[in-house]
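Give me a protein, keeping tokens residue-aligned:
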Amino acid sequence: MRCLPSFLLCTLLLVAPHCAEVAAQEVQPDPKIPCANWMGGAPGYPGHNGLPGRDGKDGQDGLKGEKGEKGVQGPKGDQGEVGIPGQDGPRGFPGQPGQKGESVFIYRSAFSVGLTERAPPPNVPIRFSKIFYNEQSHYDTSTGKFLCNIPGTYYFAYHLTVYLMDVKVSLYKKDKAVIFTYDQFQNNNVDQASGSVLLHLSSGDEVWLQVYGEEGKNGVYADNINDSTFMGFLLYPDLDVH
């Protein structure tokens, strides 16, 4: 029995230090949390936003998408400025000959004649017998008259040499004087008289030139160096006839 008290004493001596260490561990505060055993502190303020990060690298191209539907046509734009003319292209090959068409000069009528006799008689057509041009033979040298074969508008003109006496001439159409020309002769001088007119003629109309009035007004003259001429030609035919 004397050993039992000794065993208990030894047990207490061994247990006491261990309990003191456990109590010390339970009471020792956390050095990272001051006043942890007293009370909790107030929440802190939120921190500032951090700086944006750097842009990442571009990714790889994706697969080509499907073709979209056609959009609505937009409004017409303004007309652009005229461009610089381009260079001339190479010369082409000659074309095939075309068919022969109707000539634009198919309706022809013209004459140009001159006087060969001196002092023609008055009040009758002057017969110009020197032929410069009369291809269609519309001027008759035997009568001194132009005969219209193609209805249309004609131009007539005359240029007369005046010598020895005064001259008064008239251009006639269908027995009616149309225009008059008078020139007074000057002694020891050779003069000229002229006139021109546009006339519309029908088929069968006649035009001529003659000395008008009395015997003393027929100083129309011509020789080998002086001419007196009469001429006329068709300007254009009547379209409703041809």
User: Anything to note?
Assistant: The helical segments are 3-27. The CA atoms of residues 156 and 197 lie 5 Å apart. The chain is about 10% helix and 30% strand.
